[in-house]
Amino acid sequence: MSNPFGKPAPTAYALDWRKVASALVKALDLHEGYWKVGLNFTLAAGQTQFSGGLSPAAFLSVMGVTLVKAKEMDDLTVDAAFVNPLLEKATDRHIRTFTKGPATVN
Fold first, then answer.
1. Domain containing 23: what range?
2. Tens-digit pLDDT profile for residues 2-59
3. Residue 8 in domain
4. Does residue 55 sit within a domain?
5. Rounded-to-integer distance, Cα 24 and Cα 64, Å
6. Which residue, among 4, 3, 38, has the nearest Cα to 21 in the 3D structure?
7. Contact, 16 vs 36, CB < 8 A?
């Protein structure tokens, strides 16, 4: 069913590696360090039908994603302090607001 009020809702998003790393840093609640995405692969060998006959083949599967701590920034790295800064707790802010004293009206 289409959306009668405007553009259809997206069904896919393309993300570069830094956006993926930023999302993982936020999901894992990391606030310091440089981080980048790594992929875990499995490689298997076998044979497959190709051009009318059997041919040797390699099969590569992505088994998972790893967030790797990096020593320095590069084009694939994000700084957790920048993409997911540590914010003060709402309760600390609430207490500090109400201990300043009563508001005055002129």
1. 17-98
2. 667 778 888 999 999 999 999 999 999 999 999 999 999 999 999 998 888 999 999 9
3. no
4. yes
5. 13
6. 38
7. no
Is residue 47 a contact partner of residue 55, using CB atoms and an 8 Å limit? yes
Q: Distance between CA 15 and CA 22 in Å, rounded? A: 10
Whether the CB-CB separation of 40 and 65 falls below 8 Å is answered with yes
- Residue 103: inside a domain, yes or no? no
Q: Give the span between the Cα atoms of 71 and 13, in whole angstroms.
A: 29
Cβ within 8 Å of residue 68, ≥6 positions away? 35, 36, 37, 38
Instruction: Judge contact between 36 and 70, C-beta under 8 A.
Output: yes
Instruction: Write out pLDDT tens, residues 68-100.
Output: 999 999 999 999 999 999 886 655 555 555 445
Q: Are 70 and 37 in contact (CB under 8 A)?
A: no
